[in-house]
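Weekly modeling sync, notes
Attendees: AB, CL, MP (scribe)

Item 1: holo prediction request
CL wants a bound-state model with S-adenosylmethionine before deciding which constructs to order. AB pointed out that an apo prediction alone won't tell us much about the pocket. Agreed to run with the ligand included and paste results into these notes for async review.

Input as submitted:
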Amino acid sequence: MDTAIHRGELPPSEVYRRFARIEAHGSSAAYEDWAGSVAEDPEVLDLVAGLPRPKRQPNLVFAAARLHGAAGTYASFRATLVERWGTIRETVLARSTQTNEAARCAVLLPFLAELPQPLALVEVGASAGLCLLPDHYSYRYSDGTHLDPADGPSKVVIDCRLGPGAAPPRALPKVAWRAGIDLSPADVENSEDCTWLETLIWPGHDDRRDRLRSALAIARREPPRVIAGDLNESLPALAAEAPADATLVVFHTAVLAYLDEAARNSFVDLVSGLRGHWISNEGPGVLPRLRPLPPSVASGEFVIAVDGIPRATADPHGRSVAGLENCG
Ligand SMILES: C[S@@+](CC[C@H](N)C(=O)[O-])C[C@H]1O[C@@H](n2cnc3c(N)ncnc32)[C@H](O)[C@@H]1O
């Protein structure tokens, strides 16, 4: 993830061009086409430029447009976007990018499993809290490691490719306590919130949509506690609630790109001063204070760091993880 894309810190044409090239390329042909075409379309760029900067991000505009019927080729998408811009704009202003991807648990699991158990998990930027339920999903790693919850295989089965240097987890983590923070938690009992979470899934990612539905069903049975608040303001009090006899793990995935640099730095200072451990899964440019990354890390990948030390790269949607050498 690129802060300039997600915070609208560049001219809209460049935001959409970068999104097409860095985030959508190789992942969603429709989004790559739409974003690349928007970047060259002055009329649509004018509409986007009329939004507040953090609301200009392609993920948000495209999801809002699809919620109101935009689909198909760029010409068809564009016609709906222009015709229904007033309604689409209202959705863009009312909603935010809250994509909740349970599959990201698969790339976090090797690092959660190596810590002293049981764990007290605090997720900042938790959305509906689906990543707070890693012990409720089944995992199928490419080396043949299969892990299931204690009560048998889950309806959510996450496939994850292990690249060079990545070791599978030996067991599911034992979670003694869990809680999350989000500016605006998505409510798993609210059908509009659930529809929004589905709409945030990119065209062509049908496996992700199926997984989201199953994960939401699990979350309705085992609701993770997610409090409303800003992560920097709410973290100290929430972390202080965690039981002292469990290993505190503060983690986040695909969140810090939405914060400005000062807020990201405050968060790093805050989390570094807490007991326990910190696991981050973010785009390579999001946490510049991490140890230097090897040049081989691609801009479209995520970097997993434990206590500020980069340990792995990961597919942004949790499909694969590979080890990183020599960053310690
Ligand atoms: C892209 S979603 C990621 C959700 C989840 N971490 C995952 O990976 O599936 C980013 C989430 O961060 C939340 N967020 C952004 N800025 C925040 C802040 N300052 N404090 C708390 N939550 C924040 C958003 O509301 C959104 O739900």
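Recorded for review: The CA atoms of residues 47 and 132 lie 37 Å apart.
Action items: CL to compare against the apo run; MP to circulate these notes.
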